Amino acid sequence: MRIAVAVLLAFATATLYALSTSLQALEARRTPASTALRASLLARLVRRPLWLAGTAAGGVAWPLQAAALALGSVALVQPALGFGLVVLLVLGVTVLHEHVGAREGLGVAAIAAAVGVLGWAAPTETGGYTHAGTWIVGAGIVALAPAPLLLRRAGRSGGLVTSLVAGAGWAWVALATSLFDQSLADRSLPWIVAWGAGVAVVSWGALITEMTALQTWPATRAIPIAFGLEMLLPAAVAPLLTRTSPPHPFAFAAALVLAAAAAVLLGGSRAVAHAAGGA
Questions:
Q1: Contact by Cβ (8 Å): 141, 176
Q2: Mean pLDDT for back-to-back runs of 10 residues, the chain (279 residues)
Q3: Model pTM greater than 0.85?
Q4: Do residues 16 and 64 lie in contact, with contact meaning Cβ atoms separated by under 8 Å?
């Protein structure tokens, strides 16, 4: 029952994140390229009602994601966020009247099959992080938080690198959120504050890089990379960082490959891209 509730919460989270991405990206594409990777990009966007509505949707999504991660493992919950691509597909078809073909059908089937297999093959709970795993998540926060500033100084505001950094940032938000959940369960106030702050600063950096990626690169390229990393990176590294491992490792690995294929198929779809502000 816990697994079913975790998946349902992940689907609700994915729906809100998809709406958030759609509204935020639409406004990001209307901002000057000179604002890429700058706080001024967000300073412009916060004055736009649609972008604020998208931000509000994302703000509501995070507690749902935290609840899903408290009930189910990160190796299950994060791939289930691929349902957000299905939501974007539905928006593309119903709102923008985009055509759906075999590519989209295969993508939806792949997401459904991957989540179904992971419900059986993934660990039921994230489990306790190892000492090294905790330090790795913390080091990732320190590395990713200043990413927009470092990329801007290096002159790397292109779509590929910002998509990669955004995806890694959102993946690390998931890992830090699972540690936040663990701290809540342990009633450890200092760690609750520390991991909550970590989630906040990495989310800030990931948001700026994601908006830059969608501002400067076709959505059909940015979405598969950012979404794919957010879905799969936490699931792939969780067994290395925690004391739990998948009970069916080969099926688990195959399901992650299937989820990656779904991210490529749906993320590269014109209907999904246009729903994500690419029109």
A1: yes
A2: 88 90 76 69 77 86 93 92 89 78 90 92 89 96 91 82 93 96 93 95 90 80 87 93 91 94 88 73
A3: yes
A4: yes
